[in-house]
């Protein structure tokens, strides 16, 4: 019996030795660097592993026979090699070529099922971690200027930005700049809802935890994103690390007039054993601002994490984010000379911020007057943002070529604005400078004192202004530019609780890849907005003014409080709540006709419900105002709820579809075409901004987006190209202007007009490797965007409608859409030293739909250099806007309180050739030194 057992054991060991082998090897790039994190898959077993920190891999217990090894690594071309496993040497080493445009890499954005970019019938651009690290952190939008076809206006800073593609832009205004696009993190929207001063960029920061960005400029986004037919910008976090590794980066940035930014970033990831993996990272920064303010412009940071469990047939990922941050945004700068704008009134395009200075004020909360509640107001707070989110992402194979993917998250968001809006010139001869205070008759001797010191700066006699005469100074004191700033202390409190989930079920057949599922979004949001006038000097570094009316033989009347605030809560009032529910059902089929030709068709049915309440309001009138003191007029007309409410409960339903065809000319070249019909339901600003103290009679219009594209992708040995010709049409565009009524001292929006725009163009990105160390890149867009049918409501500066007109600008160029924009760059890297230089060109744009004012083209050069001090330690220098270019990114119209860009016509310029106007310059030069330690 012992002999028999021994024989069996020997036979088993022989069998194992003969039929169970190990496969090992290394993964390297063309420079000899070992690549950690490469995915190696062996078929037909479909087992996969990830290369370790030394770039090595090992498969155990593989039976002898013929197999295929496929190696994937982000940013490198996929390698597939047949192998034979026997009793000999089963070592296989791979050298990967850099995939300059990621054409051979698998993308997950804009498709229901992952596929390589080359095989996708869509235009998808990838911003690599290297490109992210080569930019000074100026915000989410600024980074996306790397994406062809995408227009970016990041002149306000890291928030309050505008991003859109292919002329789908009309409702993407300054305070809702992501109207058509979906800003995503790991496949789900950052925020479900948008309205004025509440956009997704408030809740997103770019740091070292981002692995890459995948951008879909239109097309398939109509069927793959919630209410976002204009594009998807998906920021993908770091994934599985087989070995413990991480990075710490310290940065010091010198910007503007010697203003500093300090930032510390870190990330760590690895294995916890038993197929559990983790990533943890984030950043903290303190930013004095690139323009001059008397307060810290931004401070705070975020923590992100994920915990991944790899199962036999899939993975489970727990993830989350805690963001707590203060930031702000820059407003416009005054200019003169319509043909060649120059900064006016002593201001500077590079350094002037023209924001209220810091102070600690209190303003009565109009919602709770009877309870004597107040809101603190300090412009140095900017916008205080908090976002706590957590989610669960499940990928699982079910057998028989069925699989399921479910990604869901919950978030709790808070955004509290304490900043100023508008910074217009208001002459001391303008009655608005006094009557905006809420005083019944502010005529006589008006005294202006510096609020912080109490020093009298000027005393004026305004007795003649009602007769059209100029004011007169009394004594020697004067105010800068004989004016005050037309501005408002803008207090806005927003909260939103959101749940977003998407379930996708996939069935793979021999010639079909079928995906179907549902997406759900629920949000409960509240918004409160209150506008209070502020007396501020009109000069590059504004000061708050305490203002009094001091006429002989009568008590002194305070036109402002001690901080310079006046007309408490009287300029603007919105108090509203809304529940938003979105549901979508989708299905797609990728039909493979043969090894060269395939097409995909997708349908998406979506329904969105907006259910909310909006308070009506009126000034709280009582003798002596809120404090009962007749000598303080600044609290005489606080807007408060009247008790009446306007409700809205509207449902939007629509069907979107997309058809794409992809033809493989070879294994390195493909041709594709796609037609898409998308829809855009209104955002909550439709109810919040319009219908002031009137019933909300109708729901908003669903905008319709038609897009066609024809593209070529080519991935040669040293050259890669992706180019797409596109046509897009946007119709049923509701547009309205932000207006100010000087007679009632109130802000209002003009009646909505519905318009159509059409854009045709060509976008491309190309890269060429001259050698393993030197490469060049060139990407850009040329386009013609037309306001096909376009009308603007002219309210003639008042709420009264008897003198209103409608202006027709059909056939004009669509504003803020350049005819050309491109990036041209070169980079050198020899492992020890690296450097790059990139030129960004922004073409000429119309400043408004009247085509009365043009924003000239400008160029921005970015430079960087890095040196590896040791294997783990690296130093970098980054310079943005190397030559301090003074381009203009935006146009706000005439330099008067409540003016808008559309108020400037060709006739206005002819009649006012010397008038000043408001523009927003691009951000000036900034340089950062970074020290990074990797382990």
TrEMBL record:
Record keywords, A-Z: Cell outer membrane, Ion transport, Iron, Iron transport, Membrane, Receptor, Signal, TonB box, Transmembrane, Transmembrane beta strand, Transport
Compartment annotation: Cell outer membrane
Pfam family, any one: Plug
GO molecular function list: siderophore uptake transmembrane transporter activity
InterPro entries the UniProt entry points to: Beta-barrel_TonB (IPR000531), Beta-barrel_TonB_sf (IPR036942), CarboxyPept-like_regulatory (IPR008969), Plug_dom (IPR012910), Plug_dom_sf (IPR037066), TonB-dep_rcpt-like (IPR039426)
Residue intervals of the TonB-dependent receptor plug domain: 119-232
Top-level lineage group: Bacteria
Coiled coil: none
One Gene Ontology term, aspect cellular component: cell outer membrane
Key word Zinc-finger present: no
Signal peptide (residue range): 1-20
Main location: membrane
Membrane topology: Multi-pass membrane protein
The TonB-dependent receptor-like beta-barrel domain, residue ranges: 344-882
Family: Belongs to the TonB-dependent receptor family.
The protein's name: TonB-dependent receptor-like protein
């Amino acid at each position: 019996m012992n002999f028999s057992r021994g024989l069996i054991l020997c036979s088993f060991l022989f069998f194992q030795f003969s039929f169970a082998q190990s496969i090992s090897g290394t993964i390297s790039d063309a420079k000899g660097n070992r690549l950690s994190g490469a995915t190696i898959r062996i078929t037909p077993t479909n087992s996969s592993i990830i290369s370790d920190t030394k770039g090595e891999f090992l498969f155990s217990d593989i039976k002898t026979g013929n197999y295929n090894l496929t190696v994937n690594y982000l940013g490198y071309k996929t390698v597939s090699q047949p192998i034979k496993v026997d009793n000999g040497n089963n070592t296989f080493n791979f050298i990967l070529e850099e995939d300059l445009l990621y054409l051979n890499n698998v993308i997950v954005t804009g498709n229901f099922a992952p596929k390589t970019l080359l095989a996708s019938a869509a235009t998808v651009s990838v911003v690599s971690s290297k490109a992210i690290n080569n930019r000074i952190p100026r915000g989410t939008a600024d980074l996306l200027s790397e994406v062809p076809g995408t227009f970016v206006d990041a002149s306000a800073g890291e928030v309050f930005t505008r991003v859109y593609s292919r002329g789908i832009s009309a409702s993407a205004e300054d305070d809702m700049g992501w109207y058509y696009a979906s800003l995503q993190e790991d496949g789900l929207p950052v925020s479900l809802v948008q309205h004025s001063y509440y956009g997704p960029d408030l809740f997103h920061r770019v740091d070292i935890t981002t692995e890459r960005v995948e951008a879909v400029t239109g097309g398939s986004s109509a069927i793959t994103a919630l209410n976002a037919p204009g594009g998807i910008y998906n920021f993908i976090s770091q994934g599985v690390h087989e070995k413990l590794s991480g990075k710490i980066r310290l940065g010091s940035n010198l910007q503007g007039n010697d203003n500093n930014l300090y930032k510390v970033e870190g990330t760590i990831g690895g294995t916890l054993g038993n197929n559990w993996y983790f990533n943890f990272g984030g950043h903290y920064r303190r930013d004095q601002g690139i323009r001059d303010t008397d307060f810290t412009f931004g401070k705070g940071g975020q923590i992100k994490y994920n915990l991944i469990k790899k199962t036999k047939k899939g993975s489970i990922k727990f993830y989350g984010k805690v963001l707590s941050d203060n930031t702000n945004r820059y407003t416009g700068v005054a200019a003169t000379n319509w043909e060649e704008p120059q900064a006016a009134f002593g201001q500077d395009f590079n350094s002037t911020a023209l924001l209220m200075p810091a102070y600690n004020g209190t303003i009565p909360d109009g919602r709770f007057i009877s309870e004597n509640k107040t809101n603190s107001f300090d412009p140095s707070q900017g916008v205080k943002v908090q976002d706590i989110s957590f989610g669960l992402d499940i990928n699982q194979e079910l057998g028989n070529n069925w699989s399921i993917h479910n990604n869901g998250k919950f978030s709790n968001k808070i955004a509290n604005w304490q900043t100023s809006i508008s910074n217009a010139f208001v002459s001391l001869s303008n009655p608005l400078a006094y009557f905006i205070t809420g005083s019944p008759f502010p005529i006589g001797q008006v005294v202006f004192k510096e609020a912080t010191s109490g020093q009298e700066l000027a005393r004026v006699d305004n007795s003649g202004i009602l007769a059209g005469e100029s004011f007169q100074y009394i004594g020697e004191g004067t105010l800068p530019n004989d004016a005050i700033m037309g501005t408002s202390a803008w207090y806005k409190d927003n909260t939103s609780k959101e749940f977003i989930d998407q379930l996708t079920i996939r069935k793979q057949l021999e010639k079909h890849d079928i995906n179907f599922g549902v997406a759900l979004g629920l949000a409960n949001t509240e918004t409160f907005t209150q506008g209070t006038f502020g007396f501020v000097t009109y000069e590059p570094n504004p000061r708050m003014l305490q203002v009094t009316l001091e006429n002989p033989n009568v008590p002194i009347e305070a036109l402002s409080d001690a901080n310079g605030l006046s007309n408490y809560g009287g300029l603007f009032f919105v108090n509203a709540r809304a529940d938003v529910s979105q549901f979508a059902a989708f299905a797609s089929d990728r039909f493979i006709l043969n090894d060269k030709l395939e097409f995909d068709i997708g349908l998406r049915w979506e329904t969105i419900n907006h259910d909310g309440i909006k308070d009506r309001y009126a000034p709280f009138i009582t003798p002596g105002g809120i404090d009962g003191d007749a000598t303080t007029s600044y609290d005489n007309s606080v807007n408060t709820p009247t008790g009446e409410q306007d409700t809205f409960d509207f449902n939007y339903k629509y069907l979107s579809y997309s058809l794409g065809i992809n033809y493989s000319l070879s294994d390195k070249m493909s041709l594709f075409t796609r037609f898409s019909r998308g829809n855009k339901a209104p955002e909550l600003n439709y109810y919040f901004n319009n219908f002031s103290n009137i019933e909300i009679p109708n729901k908003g219009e669903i905008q319709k987006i038609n897009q066609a594209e024809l593209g070529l992708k080519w991935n040669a040995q040293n050259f890669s190209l992706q180019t797409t010709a596109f046509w897009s049409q946007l119709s049923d565009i509701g547009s309205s202007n932000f207006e100010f009524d000087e007679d009632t001292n109130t802000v209002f929006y003009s009646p909505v007009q519905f318009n159509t725009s059409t854009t045709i163009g060509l976008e491309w990105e190309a890269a060429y490797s001259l050698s393993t160390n030197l490469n060049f890149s060139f990407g850009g867009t040329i386009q013609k965007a037309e306001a096909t049918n376009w009308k603007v409501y002219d309210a003639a500066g008042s709420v009264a409608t008897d003198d209103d007109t409608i202006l027709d600008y059909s056939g004009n160029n669509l504003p803020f859409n350049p005819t050309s924009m491109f990036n041209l760059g070169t980079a050198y890297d020899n492992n020890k030293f690296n450097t790059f230089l990139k030129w960004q060109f922004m073409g000429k744009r119309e400043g408004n739909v009247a085509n009365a004012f043009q924003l000239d083209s400008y160029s921005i050069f970015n430079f960087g250099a890095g040196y590896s001090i040791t294997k783990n330690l690296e130093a970098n220098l980054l310079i943005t806007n190397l030559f301090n270019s003074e381009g203009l990114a935006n146009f706000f119209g005439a330099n008067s309180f409540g003016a808008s860009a559309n108020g400037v016509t060709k006739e206005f310029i002819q009649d006012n050739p010397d008038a000043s106007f408001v523009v927003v310059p691009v951000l000036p030069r900034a340089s950062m030194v970074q020290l990074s330690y990797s382990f």
